Amino acid sequence: MMRFTIENMNCGGCAKGVTATVKAADPSAEIEVQLDRKEITVSGGRTDSDALRGALQAAGWKAETAPA
């Protein structure tokens, strides 16, 4: 399980965009969004956290690995 803080995820549309970005990078990933905390939890995927963070950042999301 990986957690990311997405600083610029401010609304439901942003959450959908973040989810789509993660799914494009790893279709097997399961994503839980906590919009009020600007965090996502990714589980069940095959991609490591560095690759997912890179994909999110390349798509314009200010993504950082969240503390466990």
Automatic annotation (TrEMBL):
Pfam families: HMA (PF00403). SUPFAM superfamilies: HMA, heavy metal-associated domain. Keywords: Metal-binding. Residues 1-64 form the HMA domain. Gene3D superfamilies: 3.30.70.100. InterPro entries: Heavy-metal-associated_CS (IPR017969), HMA_dom (IPR006121), HMA_dom_sf (IPR036163). GO terms for molecular function: metal ion binding. This is Copper chaperone.
